[in-house]
Structure formats: C-alpha cells, structure tokens
UniProtKB/TrEMBL annotation:
Domain Gfo/Idh/MocA-like oxidoreductase N-terminal: 4-127
Protein's name in the database: Gfo/Idh/MocA family protein
Gene3D superfamilies attached to this UniProt entry: Dihydrodipicolinate Reductase, domain 2 (3.30.360.10), NAD(P)-binding Rossmann-like Domain (3.40.50.720)
Domain annotation GFO/IDH/MocA-like oxidoreductase: ranges: 135-244
Keyword Transferase applies: no
Similarity comment: family membership: Belongs to the Gfo/Idh/MocA family.
InterPro entries hit by this protein: Gfo/Idh/MocA-like_OxRdtase_N, Gfo/Idh/MocA_domain, GFO_IDH_MocA-like_dom, Glc-Fru_OxRdtase_bac, NAD(P)-bd_dom_sf, TAT_signal
Taxonomic lineage of the native organism: Bacteria, Pseudomonadati, Bacteroidota, Cytophagia, Cytophagales
Oxidoreductase listed as a keyword: yes
Length: 331
C-alpha cells in the first residue's frame, strides 16, 4: 500500500511542487489536505479526487487521528507556524514532514522533536537536495576527499523579492528573519554536507538596506562565514535583492561547482575534470518516497528533526554574529 500524505497549507510550494510531485511518487500519494480556505478545498478536491472525509481545516485537523487514509502530515505553512502545527500533527499519531527552516527558534525545534518522540512518530525536514544527484555527488567529493581535503566553500542563494510588501516572508514573526532563514539555510546545508562536519564558529555582516519599504523588519541581505575545526572556511551570502544560486568547493587537488545549484530543476555541475553529466530528477518525489520508505522499514530519516534543529541553531548564531559584529562560537 502507498502511504497517504496530507498537505497542511496550500500555498505556492504545495500547489506547484508538492502536489504535482505526489503524482510521481511510488511509496506515497496525496490523500488529504488541511486548508483554511474553502475555495481551495473545493478546487483541490476536484483536481486531485480527494474525498470529503480527507479534507480538514486548521480547527478540525486533530481529527486526522482516526483517519486510516492518512499516514504522513506535511507542514507547508509560514516558518513561524511550523512548531505549533508540527506538534498538532504529532499529536494525531501520524508521522510528520516539516518544511525548512524547521522553526524560528531552537526552543521550538526542541519542542517539536519532543512531541514527535512522545507520540512515537518520525519527523523529517523538507531538505529535498539530499535526494538530488548533483548534491549527492558533492557530498561524495567532499566527504570522501576525492580531490583531497576541502579548504574553501563558497555558497550563495538569492532572489529579487518583488510584489506585495506585506507577505509573510518579510514579517519577522512569521518568517523568523529574512533571506538567511529562507535561502541562506541552503548555503549552511551545502557547506555542512560538502565537509561532513559542522562549523565551530561564525562571523557575519548584514548588507545595506536599499528598499526600506520592504525591509523594515527583516534583513535585505547578509554575508557570513562559517569556520570549521579543520581550518576550512565557507564564504556565504543570501539576499532578497540579488540573483544567485551557487555551491562551490575547493580541495587540495581539484574543485567543483554547482550553478545553478539550489533550484527544483536545471541544476548544472562541473568539476576541475569536466562536466558532471548527472540527471535532474523530481527532488520532492524522491524526498517524500525516501521518508515513506523510512516509515515502511522503520528506519531513521536522512534529514531528521535533529538536523533541522542543528541548522536553526547555526542560523541564530549567524544573526547574533551580524548583530554584535563578533565571532560567535557554535554550541
Ligand atoms: P506561501 O505563502 O505560498 O504559502 C503559505 C500558505 O500558508 C498559504 O496557503 C497560506 O494561506 C497559509 N497560511 C496559513 N496561515 C497563514 C498566515 N497567518 N499567514 C500567511 N499564510 C498563512 O508560502 P510557500 O512558499 O508555500 O512556503 C511555505 C513553507 O514552505 C515555508 O516554510 C517555506 O520556507 C517552505 N518552502 C520550502 C521550499 C523548498 O524548496 N523546500 C520551497 C518553497 C517554500
């Protein structure tokens, strides 16, 4: 049997990526939805053939508890809502996937992990790139020291945010921060899985605010460095007013580069020896199938809540470094 997934929050990512990916998955399928908007419920019901009994709103969501059609609840809400809804999901006894960044504080991450443990359910974070061939190749090149020890990483993830200035991504409460929370997390992840190690300290600097009408609560851009125990340094940047998608690694005897690197498709990679020639795949389908497999075979997720919490801890240290101008040790 294919496991049933219920998506919570039918915004852009659920609509354009996750629901289509769930038509391509082999071990799970789109079984239900949780939405606060009745017109969306109606449209999704027709488009994806979802029975009425599998359609919930935020107040009825706890009734998923008794629904055998649903095995996994996937939280795709604004960052500041991840903790509350992941905990609600865990309390239904269903396994949980939560989108990145896991939450807006380490304390919330801890509460989410505790709730999943208490209810004996698995928790996984929406880190799709762990299931992507170019990124898997980078993990191999870096961690297995194919070109020797890595000494330098460069990572940048940015886009120009336009449109409605009242969106949740610009709201400190709902987003937890600006481009660092949304995009910088890919650079943090990329550096860590290149090296197979966590940074021991960070330094950081906020960029200038040139669009104060948009950036009155969260940063417009940020540059930061992650210092690793073995001497490697990752030079990173994220901005909501620029365009970038690059992950580069330099080792003793060679280098590699993914550019563009962090998108849903069109990833291109090369090394000092030539093009990587790897396929682009449906990342989200692979990510959700891998989690379904973990549940079916009772294995741990490759991208568990603990990894999400580790990253939020680093993001918070980067903010502290940018605020204070000091080098901040990662505890
Ligand atoms: P979105 O704005 O398109 O959708 C957010 C959804 O939350 C909407 O359906 C909205 O109605 C609902 N919502 C409920 N309460 C809300 C409130 N108080 N304020 C605002 N919206 C509210 O956002 P999105 O791009 O779909 O992002 C959702 C989550 O998915 C975020 O955590 C984001 O970081 C993550 N995401 C991950 C990826 C990825 O590649 N893994 C890509 C995009 C988004």
């Amino acid at each position: 049997k294919k496991l049933g997934v219920a998506l919570v929050g039918l915004g852009s990512y659920s609509t354009h990526q996750l629901a289509p990916a769930l038509q391509d998955t082999e071990k799970c399928h789109l079984a239900g939805i949780v939405t606060g908007t009745p017109s969306k419920a109606e449209a999704w019901k027709r488009k994806y053939n979802i029975p009425d009994k599998n359609i919930y709103n935020y107040d009825t969501m706890q009734q998923i508890k008794g629904n055998p059609d649903i095995d996994i609840i996937y939280i795709v809400l604004p960052n500041g809502m991840h903790a509350e809804y992941t905990i609600k999901a865990a309390e239904t006894g269903k396994h949980v996937i939560c989108e990145k960044p896991m939450a807006t504080s380490v304390e919330d991450c801890k509460r989410m992990i505790d709730a999943c443990n208490r209810n004996n359910v698995k928790l996984s974070i929406g880190y799709r790139l762990h299931f992507e061939p170019h990124h898997q190749r980078v993990m191999e090149l870096g961690q297995q020291k194919v070109y020797g020890a890595v000494n330098k990483i460069e990572a940048a993830d940015s886009f120009v945010l336009r449109g409605d200035p009242t969106v949740w991504r610009l709201d400190k409460e709902l987003a937890g921060g600006g481009p660092l929370m949304d995009l910088g997390i890919y650079c943090v992840q990329g550096a860590i899985y290149t090296l197979g190690n966590e940074p021991s300290a960070v330094t950081a600097k906020f960029g200038e605010i040139t669009r104060p009408d948009y950036f009155d609560e969260v940063e417009q851009s940020i540059d930061w460095q992650m210092h690793f125990q073995d001497g490697a340094v990752a030079y990173c940047s994220s901005s909501y007013n620029d365009s970038a998608s690059r992950l580069y690694g330099k080792a003793k005897n060679g280098w590699w580069e993914l550019q563009p690197s962090f998108g849903y498709s069109g990833i291109k990679g090369r090394t000092s020896e030539g093009p990587m020639n790897l396929p682009n795949v449906n990342q989200q389908a692979r990510q959700m199938d891998a989690f379904a497999e973990c549940i079916l075979e009772n294995k741990e997720s490759r991208v568990p809540g603990e990894m999400g919490m580790r990253d939020v801890n680093i993001l918070m240290a980067i903010y502290e470094a940018a605020r204070t101008g000091k080098k901040v040790q990662i505890s």
